[in-house]
């Protein structure tokens, strides 16, 4: 199959990559993708747009592509939160669609991944609504999406357009919904979609993908030479891209299109099952702790990861096997420092201080501290959602989590109490001496 000759050539912004998981990985154009999907089904198309991109050039490109598929189309700007009522509302809008195109960040795409299943599979709706303490919801293995879903990400790092998971906000936090049926049938990686993304958020996206790909490698003690080599190559490439994004941020310029495209492609690859085949599926305990930390502190996920990661790696290096393998962490950190750029080679050889220095170099914010009450609350939430009889935390108890969080979030030092300045009093009476009363 050849590329559409009408597509602009020779510029990164003109190249658009479409991944069609039911056929092959090929360069393609939006009208061609939608037309090919139209051959499978006929009828109504729904385009879901994140409000952050609704008025952009990229949104106009998507809108222009949909009529080319010769399908009736509805374009909806979707601003509902990513909770169950929001998903149910979206399901009512897309239930009779024959093709759904979700354009936006993780919130919109995750809702679309869930909403396109609800009408066809009541069991899915039941599992999402059930009251449980576990932070993990596993969907029925026989669920099938009734229409193709095309995911078009406008942010970097989550890789949700290629993943079999979705986040669902709940009363007491976030749930992780898992099921192979959640993976979109197709995804589009277009540099124009992230052209307005601040360079600081590109760096955050690199850290998210890097943390996701190395966490199973470190958390599982097994030596798997082929999988290990694949992870190391992807992690090294991400580290190089992060340095390029960090340099752009420090220079006050946009991150180049080719860097953003590579970050998006690698982010999707970090979800590939073959990358971690044979590993413990619950070897990513740092992700679970960071998830609850972000909720309690009211911060975004990646600042929570950036806050936790140095303490987590320090604990692994110190010999906490339940959190990971110290030798494997040392090995992959040495690989990252040897990835090429001088700024990586200059990082501390100790992984904990090293990753802290890299996070700061990429100008990703970290929380300065938290009160003991917040640390206690986070530790209890972590154990409630992922441990205490559930398998995800392994042997970690609340005290273990509390100790890690205390190292990551030292208690803020209160400012010194100012010494009150001397206040002027009433005028003093003159001192009377014997001489004062002496008369001539």
UniProtKB/TrEMBL annotation:
<feature type="domain" description="Alcohol dehydrogenase iron-type/glycerol dehydrogenase GldA">
    <location>
        <begin position="37"/>
        <end position="191"/>
    </location>
</feature>
<dbReference type="Pfam" id="PF00465">
    <property type="entry name" value="Fe-ADH"/>
</dbReference>
<dbReference type="InterPro" id="IPR001670">
    <property type="entry name" value="ADH_Fe/GldA"/>
</dbReference>
<comment type="similarity">
    <text>Belongs to the iron-containing alcohol dehydrogenase family.</text>
</comment>
<feature type="compositionally biased region" description="Polar residues">
    <location>
        <begin position="430"/>
        <end position="440"/>
    </location>
</feature>
<feature type="region of interest" description="Disordered">
    <location>
        <begin position="412"/>
        <end position="440"/>
    </location>
</feature>
<protein>
    <submittedName>
        <fullName>Daptide-type RiPP biosynthesis dehydogenase</fullName>
    </submittedName>
</protein>
<keyword id="KW-0560">Oxidoreductase</keyword>
<dbReference type="InterPro" id="IPR049692">
    <property type="entry name" value="Daptide_DH"/>
</dbReference>
<dbReference type="InterPro" id="IPR039697">
    <property type="entry name" value="Alcohol_dehydrogenase_Fe"/>
</dbReference>
<feature type="compositionally biased region" description="Pro residues">
    <location>
        <begin position="412"/>
        <end position="423"/>
    </location>
</feature>
């Amino acid at each position: 199959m050849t590329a559409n000759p009408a597509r602009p050539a020779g510029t990164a912004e003109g190249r658009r990559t479409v991944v069609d998981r039911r056929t092959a990985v090929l360069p393609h154009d939006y009208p061609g993708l939608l037309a090919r999907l139209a051959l499978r089904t006929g009828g109504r198309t729904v385009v879901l747009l994140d409000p952050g991109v609704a008025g952009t050039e990229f949104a106009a490109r998507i809108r222009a592509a949909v009529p080319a598929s010769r399908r009736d189309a509805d374009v909806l700007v979707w601003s509902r939160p990513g909770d169950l009522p929001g998903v149910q509302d979206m399901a009512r809008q897309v239930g009779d669609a024959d093709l759904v195109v979700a354009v936006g960040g993780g919130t919109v795409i995750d809702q679309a991944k869930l909403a396109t299943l609800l009408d066809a599979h009541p069991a899915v709706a039941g599992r999402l609504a059930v009251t449980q303490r576990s932070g993990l919801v596993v969907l029925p293995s026989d669920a099938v999406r009734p229409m193709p879903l095309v995911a078009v990400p406008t942010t970097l790092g989550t890789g949700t357009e290629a993943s079999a998971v979705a986040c669902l906000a709940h009363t007491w936090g976030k749930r992780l919904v898992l099921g192979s049926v959640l993976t979109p049938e197709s995804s589009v990686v277009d540099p124009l979609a992230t052209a307005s993304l601040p360079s600081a958020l590109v760096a955050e996206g690199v850290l998210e993908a890097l943390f996701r790909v190395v966490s199973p490698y470190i958390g599982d003690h097994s030596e798997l030479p082929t999988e290990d080599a694949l992870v190391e190559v992807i992690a090294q490439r991400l580290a190089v891209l992060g340095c390029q994004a960090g340099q752009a941020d420090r220079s006050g310029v946009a991150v180049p299109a080719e860097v953003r495209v590579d970050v998006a492609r690698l982010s999707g690859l970090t979800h590939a099952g073959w990358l971690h085949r044979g590993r413990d599926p619950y070897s990513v305990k740092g992700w679970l702790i960071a998830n609850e930390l972000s909720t309690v502190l009211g911060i975004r996920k990646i600042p929570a990861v950036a806050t936790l990661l140095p303490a987590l790696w320090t604990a692994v290096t110190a010999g906490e096997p339940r959190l990971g393998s110290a030798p494997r962490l040392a090995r992959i950190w040495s690989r990252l420092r040897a990835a090429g750029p001088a700024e990586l080679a200059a990082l501390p050889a100790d992984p904990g201080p090293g990753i802290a220095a890299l996070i700061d170099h990429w100008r990703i914010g970290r929380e300065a501290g938290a009160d003991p009450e917040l640390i206690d609350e986070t530790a209890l939430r972590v154990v409630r959602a992922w441990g205490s009889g559930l398998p995800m935390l392994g042997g970690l108890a609340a005290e273990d989590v509390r100790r890690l969080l205390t190292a990551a979030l030292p208690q803020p030092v209160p400012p010194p109490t100012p010494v009150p300045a001397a206040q002027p009093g009433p005028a003093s009476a003159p001192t009377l001496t014997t001489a004062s009363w002496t008369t001539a």
